[in-house]
């Protein structure tokens, strides 16, 4: 695919496009399978601060409905005067949770199955050569739709892991989905490094271990950092993380200070510490 997409200026600095479309159907199935196994007590466990597992399931339904244009329930969110994107998103998320507070687990599962199937059909037909919604944590607005779609997949995957963790289960190790999630999350590196000064050509290497891992090289260019430049043999700094630390850092399941204690760092520590500020969600 050309780095120039219809309606989006050159976004080659984001790296090679990712096609996450084939992963949506199995992800939906995995979520439904998980929810159907939960006990009544597990539905009430805390999934993320302030939200139970049931709240988070309702939030996923809200993600589906938002992707579909809030086509049901009479829910039509709009920005308040002077409201930032982050404030708007957090407010709308809570409003949706409150709206569904009285819904039973069975009702939520049925609604998730229906709306998830609609989202999957929408995603399957997406033209990856067009413009999508902005991805603020990658610094792309508008973003190429491949990143918009891939970001959406990481959201569903992450919420499923949060439910798994809340109910005593470990992160799903399935390598194809995890590999894609990590690859998408690393597209935040150029935006993460935007305020970090370095000579043109300076390169930082991020490696994630294991079968789902990989290597990403972010390079200082004249006006931005980029994932597109060819790797150098000797990066100025390198950071190696295990997959669990990496995805939880990117979603702020752990803090950068914790990730740094687990990371293997070589070279310029200032650059390594900058890398570990990465956030791949609206935070």
| Rg calculated over all Cα atoms | 19 Å
Strands, total number = 7
Task: Kindly identify the CATH topology of the largest domain.
Answer: Four Helix Bundle (Hemerythrin (Met), subunit A)
Count of the separate structural domains: 2
Output the helix-strand order.
HHEEHHHHHHEEEEHHEH
The fraction of residues assigned to DSSP E strands is 5-15%
Principal-axes geometry comes out as globular
The N- to C-terminal Cα distance equals 31 Å
If classified by CATH, what would the architecture of the largest domain be? Up-down Bundle
Total number of helices: 11
> Strand order of the main beta sheet, please?
5-4-3-6-7
Share of helix among residues?
40-55%
- Please name the fourth-level CATH homologous superfamily of the largest domain: dinb family like domain
Average pLDDT confidence is 92
Describe this structure in words.
There is one protein chain. With 283 residues, the chain is an alpha+beta fold. It folds into two domains: 157 residues, Four Helix Bundle (Hemerythrin (Met), subunit A), CATH 1.20.120.450; 89 residues, SCP2 sterol-binding domain (Nonspecific Lipid-transfer Protein, Chain A), CATH 3.30.1050. Helix content is 45%, strand content 10%. The protein is built from eleven helices and seven strands. The strands form two sheets. The chain has a five-stranded mixed beta sheet. The chain has a two-stranded antiparallel sheet with strand order 1-2. A hairpin with a 4-residue loop joins strand 4 and strand 5. The radius of gyration is 19 Å and the shape is globular. The two termini are 31 Å apart.
């Amino acid at each position: 695919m050309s780095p120039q997409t219809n309606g989006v200026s050159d976004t080659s600095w984001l790296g090679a496009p990712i096609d996450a479309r084939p992963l949506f159907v199995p992800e939906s199935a995995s979520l439904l399978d998980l929810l159907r196994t939960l006990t009544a007590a597990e539905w009430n466990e805390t999934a993320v601060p302030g939200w139970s597992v049931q709240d988070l399931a309702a939030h996923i339904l809200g993600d589906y409905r938002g992707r579909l244009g809030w086509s049901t329930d009479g829910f039509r969110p709009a920005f308040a005067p002077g409201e930032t994107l982050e404030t708007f998103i957090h407010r709308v998320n809570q409003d949706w949770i409150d709206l569904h507070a009285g819904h039973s687990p069975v009702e939520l599962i049925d609604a998730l199955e229906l709306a998830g199937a609609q989202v999957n059909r929408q995603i399957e037909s997406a033209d990856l050569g067009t413009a999508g919604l902005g991805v603020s944590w990658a610094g792309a607005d508008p973003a190429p739709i491949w990143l918009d779609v891939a970001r959406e997949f990481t959201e569903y995957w992450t919420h499923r892991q949060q439910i798994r963790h809340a109910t005593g289960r470990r992160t799903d190790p399935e390598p194809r989905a995890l590999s894609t999630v990590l690859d998408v999350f690393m597209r935040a590196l150029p935006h993460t490094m935007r305020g970090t000064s370095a000579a043109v050509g300076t390169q930082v290497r991020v490696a994630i271990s294991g079968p789902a891992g990989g290597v990403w090289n972010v390079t200082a260019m004249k006006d931005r950092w980029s994932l597109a430049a060819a790797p150098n043999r000797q990066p100025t700094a390198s950071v190696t993380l295990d997959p669990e630390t990496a995805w939880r850092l990117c979603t702020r399941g752990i803090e950068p200070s914790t990730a740094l204690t687990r990371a293997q760092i070589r070279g310029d520590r200032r650059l390594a510490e900058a890398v570990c500020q990465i956030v791949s969600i609206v935070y």
